Amino acid sequence: MPELPDRLDVLAVAPHPDDLEILCGGTIAKLIKQGYRVGMADLTSGEPTPRGSLETRKREAEAARVALGSPLRINVELPNRVLMDSPENRFKLATVFRTYRPGILIVGAGRTPAASPDHHQGHLLGEAARFYSQLTKWDERFAGTAPYRVPHLVYCPFPFDAEQRNWHSTFVVDISDTIEQKFEAIRVYESQFDAERFERVKHMVGSANGYAGARCGFRYGELFALPHPVGAPDLVTLVHGSKPTAPPDVPIGQGHLPMG
Ligand SMILES: [Zn+2]
To answer: 249: burial class by Cβ within 10 Å (0-12, 13-18, 19+)?
Structure first.
């Protein structure tokens, strides 16, 4: 049996280098600041693209990893542009889960008809590989790794999803303190975003994060969803934790924004 690395608290998975930065870069940076062991997994190289190359993309992904402070970024080396939720690809991704044994799996989710179809396939692959990861009597399909059940699955919705999702539950992580790290981690993908395009992406991402955050009383936030309702052992803790509450000495009407 091969020697296994330390378990991860969180593993975030998306098809292309730059997806995770745009989707949940602020949360990744925040989790790392909070002391959690976080890994990033890109399913493909992201190449070919019009102005990129394998070497450039690798260098940019590494620069983004450093910008977010992430200790681990792996590439699953599945094919870009033709990524499919196939049995072979499920085996490869499940092998990553069995190797790093994350407590929480974050998967980019949704269908993006105006962008790469890989995004939807990555969503399906993440769910399927999570299921495969726990299966017994198939160790030879997973490089001899032992079965591992990933306890929690969290969706990170792609912007411009073709559908209005009715997730069982959604929540927003306050990324006000890490939004600049997120922007920097996107900016380093210069082969994908020249200065003008980066400004547009920054505006779009900043606006989406500003809106998501504002709904919960944060300056910036990233939206996540669960495939089940949120279980709460304590209603008060859950509600208090979900948004900042004005302290009692703040005069009525001055503690909240209208949308807070
Ligand atoms: Zn992408």
So the answer is: exposed
